[in-house]
Each structure stands twice: as C-alpha cells, then as structure tokens.
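Input/output pair, single chain:
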Amino acid sequence: MTRVFGHYCERLPDSPEFLIIGFSPGSIPLRQRWRNNGLSADFMADYLMTFFPDDESEESSAQRQAEIKSAVSYIANELLENAMKFNDANSNLPIGIELQLHEGSLTFVTRNTISREVVSEFERYIERLTSCDPQELYIEQIEKSALGDGNGSGLGYLTMMNDYAAQLGWKFESIEGDEGLVAISTMVRLPV
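Output:
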C-alpha cells in the first residue's frame, strides 16, 4: 500500500545542500526528547543560514535572513514534534528529518511510523486539510480549542500553510514484514 496526499513530490530534484538528522525512538522518553526537538530545529535553522549570507549593506537582507531562520525553526520544530508524538511506541525504526535547499525553495521531509489503526482517521484529516480553505480551518480550530472542544491538533500544519505559504504533502507506505505499522513521510515545501 502506497498512498500520496497533497503536494507530495515523489522525485525531488537532487540537492547538493541537505541536512539529515535521525533519532532512535526508544533511546530516551518522549518528555526528555521534547527539548531536543527545539534544539534540533534551531540547529537546522542556524545551519541553513550559512547559505543565506547577510549583506550588511542592505537592511532588507538581514530581515529576510531572520524571516527564513524563524520559518525553518518553526517548521522543523512542528514536524519533529508531530513525528515524535505520533510515532508508534512499538516501532524501532528511526524517526528522521531532512532539509534540502533548492532554487527558490526549501524542502523538509520527516519520516516516522504510525499504527495501521490510525491511518484512516489521519487520511480523513489530511483530505479535509487539503480540500478546505486553510484560513477557515485555522479559525475553526482556534474556536474549538477556546471552547475546549479540540486539542489544538493541526494548528501547526495550518500555520505553515497560512503564515509561510508552505505546501504540504504526505506519503503512507506499508512496512514490509510488519502489517501493524505504516511508514509516513510528511513533506513541506517552503518558498524562499
């Protein structure tokens, strides 16, 4: 089984500039890992800035650099938190995040595993996310959270779409030899 949703690009152009970070899901408890997510996201943002040098003679250059750094840190952190939070506890497969630099865009890809039991529910959410107005969904989710009717789930994806003009896509794949788990890749393309 392979299913693709949204703006998932199966064959990205080769990128000479990329960064991949992997995590062993069982090495430390999730609560301790939470701090590492932010550190990893900030590291990715700092690393990327070497490819966007600050032209001190132009004020707009420093502002653009700060905006890109903030966007990378936010998106990487949200993706890592989702990958860690929703990774199946029975999986020993690594959780990974990759950042690729392309002409005019950055591409993030996270990989983790989820239980086959939650795939249908997540696919329904993705179908709604990709077929409805993200601004309306964002407001609806904020209202649900304020009323205590929602857990805030999905606000990160909606913020990426609304605030950063990011395109999101997902790929679900069966894991050979393990019928209970599904590998999921989440792709975010950020224009720069």
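The longest strand covers residues 178-191. The chain has a mean pLDDT of 90.
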